[in-house]
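Inverse folding, one chain.
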């Protein structure tokens, strides 16, 4: 009976043609915003009305906050790209070879910055590259047109942003914070199950949990644009994620504690002392885990209510400069090779193809797998060209009425928007790219051009651009997933030796743990959607556990540096610096005895030193061998 009651209380959503009503509402908003942007652009007689429609297609996101955040970054990146286009064209317009080299360097620099960021910030860095491609490269033979072209593009993008904002407001586009709150609550339940032992506490399960927590980080920034209390919701979501990482990290410290036998009768027996230390550590860690889970619940409630959290944690992002630099260098070389190819062929009007090459390289830098993104682009480009041709020569067929344009674009815009709303990332990416490229190839204008030769040339070079990028990536393959994993693990091990010197002195242990969780997330996604390698997860979690133990010990010992325990604390620090498990355990014993003699409490420091001794035990230590703690 309870199941029936629950089912009755949660009615199934309306579904039509295999898509829920929310997807149809989203698709309708996309089409209406696109038509509004085109109508206003035609009325204002803008030079590039298709840029307004393209803006709507790019900002096609199911919730209001996500679209507005991306719109803000799109405007900012467009302004930077226009300034860069004017500077590049003004300085290097008379030197063809040098101009192409500078454009290649700019592409590589933008890709490098995109690889160092995440979410819409990475998209903004890629858009700086795309804007230069669409302005400076397409006007490479007419540098005096760079400034008016940039102004026209900026105006069209502004119209597109306003159209999206107006339609989302009038049609009450949903907010994103309820979805995010539900995901955080689901993660909290998983963390509770893991820390309470109802799920297997393996390295693979812990790494997968950290991956899912860190993966939400790029999405919380959109909450700030939803409403006047969006900033408070962003802070609450960020604090919840940081505490969600802290709880399982403490749980792994609890699981690392040695299993002790019954205490001996002799008070001086080492077994009794070990049992006492383990009991202190277990009680403190269990209390701290419960406290962290309570803080997660408080931040979750603050997220729903739109209030400030108990503590505004930062959620720092980890990015490998080495990986970003190699990614940027590959993009710059790929662009330069394709530019050299066109220079050798001597084909006329190749500016469109070269600009699309930069667009694909820029957008691919924000995708988890650039080559997969390029392959989807290769598939989407012919579809877009075919649909644009059907619309132009069979549906519109020489007419220029706006009503026919709106009716003809409705199936295309609504159909691809439905694909965008699907949870399948491949179909979602295909729908978004096909919608964008269809509008780009069709290039709605007033009056509309129906020159078949121009259309065929445009379609040919559009398809050729994606093929050339794929060929360049096969000639100069992107960094493999295995190499990414090796570099990330090497950097993690290297930071362990420098943990006390410089890297995260300004971060609290909780914030630094989240940063390491972001690295674990990158390690797990380096090989795409392939099955998670248990050995890789074990190595990643071993580095995570060691770094977390060192930070916790450093923070707790810092509170005891002044007073009668200062000398014992210094000995504990030296043991931690040597990474010697036995010495760390001996320091915990000495600290407990010194605190007892001086009637002081050092339970928090003892509680983190004991599991640290297990984490830094020799590789063949029998302590918790199933947790993947072997280096």
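Residues assigned per position:
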């Amino acid at each position: 009976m309870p199941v029936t009651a629950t089912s009755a209380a949660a009615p199934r959503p309306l579904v039509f043609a295999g898509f829920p009503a929310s997807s149809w509402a989203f698709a309708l908003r996309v089409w209406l915003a696109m038509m509004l942007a085109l109508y206003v652009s035609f009325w204002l007689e803008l030079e590039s009305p298709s840029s307004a429609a393209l803006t709507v297609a790019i900002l096609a996101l199911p919730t209001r906050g996500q679209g507005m955040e991306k719109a803000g970054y799109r405007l900012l990146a467009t302004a930077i790209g226009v300034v860069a286009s004017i500077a590049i064209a003004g300085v290097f317009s008379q030197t063809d070879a040098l101009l192409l080299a500078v454009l290649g360097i700019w592409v590589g620099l933008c890709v490098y910055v995109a690889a160092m960021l995440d979410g819409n910030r990475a998209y903004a860095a890629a858009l700086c590259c795309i804007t230069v491609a669409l302005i400076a490269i397409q006007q490479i033979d007419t540098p005096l047109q760079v400034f008016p072209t940039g102004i026209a593009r900026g105006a069209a993008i502004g119209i597109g942003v306003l159209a999206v904002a107006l339609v989302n407001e009038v049609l009450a586009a949903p907010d994103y914070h309820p979805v995010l709150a539900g995901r955080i609550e689901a993660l909290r339940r998983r963390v509770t199950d893991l820390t309470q032992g109802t799920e297997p506490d393996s390295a693979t399960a812990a790494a997968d949990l950290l991956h899912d927590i860190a993966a939400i980080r790029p999405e919380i920034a959109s909450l700030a644009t939803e409403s006047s209390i969006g900033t408070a919701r962003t802070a609450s979501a960020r604090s919840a994620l940081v505490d969600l990482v802290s709880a399982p990290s403490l749980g792994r410290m609890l699981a690392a504690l040695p299993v002790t036998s019954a205490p001996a009768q002799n008070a001086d027996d080492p077994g009794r002392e070990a049992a006492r230390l383990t009991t202190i550590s277990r009680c403190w860690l269990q209390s701290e885990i419960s406290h962290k889970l309570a803080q997660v619940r408080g931040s979750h409630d603050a997220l729903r209510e739109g209030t400030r959290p108990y503590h505004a944690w930062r959620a720092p992002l980890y990015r490998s400069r080495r990986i970003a630099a190699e990614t940027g260098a590959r993009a710059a070389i790929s662009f330069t090779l394709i530019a050299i190819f066109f220079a050798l062929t001597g084909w006329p009007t190749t500016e469109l193809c070269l600009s699309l090459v930069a667009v694909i390289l820029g957008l691919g830098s924000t995708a988890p797998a650039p080559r997969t993104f390029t392959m989807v682009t290769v598939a989407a480009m012919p579809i877009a060209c075919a649909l644009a041709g059907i619309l132009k020569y069979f549906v519109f067929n020489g007419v220029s009425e706006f009503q026919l344009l709106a009716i003809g674009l409705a199936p295309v815009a609504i159909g691809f928007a439905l694909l965008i709303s699907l949870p399948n990332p491949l179909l979602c990416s295909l729908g978004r790219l096909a919608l964008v490229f269809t509008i780009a190839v069709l290039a709605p204008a007033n009056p509309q051009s129906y020159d078949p030769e121009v259309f065929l040339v445009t379609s040919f070079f559009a398809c050729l651009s994606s093929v050339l990028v794929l060929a360049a990536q096969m000639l100069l393959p992107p960094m493999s997933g295995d190499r990414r994993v090796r570099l990330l693990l090497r950097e993690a091990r290297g930071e362990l030796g420098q943990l006390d010197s410089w890297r995260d002195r300004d971060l609290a242990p909780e914030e630094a743990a989240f940063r390491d969780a972001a690295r674990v997330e990158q390690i797990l996604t380096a090989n795409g959607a392939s099955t998670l390698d248990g050995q890789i997860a074990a190595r990643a979690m071993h580095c995570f556990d060691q770094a977390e133990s060192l930070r916790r010990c450093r923070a707790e010992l810092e509170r005891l540096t002044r007073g009668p325990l200062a000398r014992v604390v210094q000995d504990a620090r030296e043991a931690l610096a040597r990474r010697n498990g036995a010495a760390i355990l001996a320091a915990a014993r000495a600290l407990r005895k010194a605190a007892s003699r001086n009637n002081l409490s050092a339970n928090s420091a003892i509680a983190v030193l004991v599991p640290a001794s297990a984490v830094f035990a020799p590789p063949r230590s029998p302590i918790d061998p199933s947790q993947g703690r072997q280096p």
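Residues 15-175+318-475 form one domain. Residues 1-10, 261-265, 621-631 have pLDDT under 50 and may be disordered.
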